[in-house]
Design brief:
Elements: H1 6-19, H2 27-32, H3 34-51, H4 55-75, E1 77-79, E2 89-90, E3 96-98, E4 103-104, E5 109-110, E6 115-117, E7 125-126, E8 131-132, E9 137-139, E10 143-144, E11 149-150, E12 155-156, E13 165-167, E14 172-175, H5 184-188
Parallel strand pairs: 1-3, 2-5, 3-6, 4-7, 5-8, 6-9, 7-10, 8-11, 9-12, 11-13
Antiparallel strand pairs: 13-14
Helix pairs in contact: 1-3, 3-4
């Protein structure tokens, strides 16, 4: 699911804005929205790493990598390129760590203090439209289905089916409702009326 061309790059940028409740990327947004600025740097890095292999492209990739690490360090965000599909939404800065081998689908919404990591030889594979609440820990070679809501401070170490809400330590299914009312991109599409 990495960015393969300029058209996909633009689609990723558009989807990230939509899922973060940002109507248009402006100078004002650039100054006030640090998490979205981080996401745009991350997407630019992904595009240049995957599509621009010439010397100028590699040099620009190095610059973007430096900017991602520097801004990520200030915000407490550690996300490697090519982990997330389009529609990434980082709700708040602060201690977000994602293993560089994790695979996360489109329209993922992350909150602060989230850790997606390696355990016993594997990393998580996370589906589309997943809401990850503050403080959630997801680790190991597990699979999380589509439209899943993961509650605050949940520890997810087993597979999770689609269209459910999980919470607790260790996480267990607490509802059959799912994440549909928690993902801004789905709400904007007119499928749900609840506001985030």
């Amino acid at each position: 699911m990495p960015i393969r061309n300029k058209k996909e790059y633009r689609e990723y940028l558009r989807s990230d804005l939509a899922n973060s409740n940002v109507a248009k990327w402006t100078c004002y947004e650039w100054m006030k929205n640090d998490t979205m600025r981080f996401q745009r740097i991350l997407r630019g890095l992904e595009y240049h790493l995957n599509c621009k292999r010439s010397l100028p492209g590699r040099l620009w990739s190095g610059y973007l990598r430096w900017r991602r690490v520097r801004l990520g360090g200030r915000l407490g965000i550690s996300i490697a390129p090519n982990c997330f599909g389009p529609g990434l939404s980082i709700a708040h800065p602060g201690t977000i760590v994602v293993n560089d081998e994790a695979v996360i689908g489109k329209n993922c919404r992350l909150h602060t203090c989230v850790n997606i990591g390696y355990h016993n030889g594997g990393v998580p594979r996370i589906g589309d439209n997943v809401y990850i609440g503050p403080g959630a820990k997801i680790y190991g070679g597990i699979t999380i289905g589509d439209n899943v809501a993961i509650g605050a401070n949940a520890v997810v170490c087993d597979d999770v089916p689609s269209n459910v809400t999980v919470a607790g330590v260790p996480a267990r299914i607490v509802s059959e409702k799912g994440s549909q009312e928690l993902i801004p991109a789905l709400i904007k599409a007119g499928k749900y009326t609840h506001r985030v």
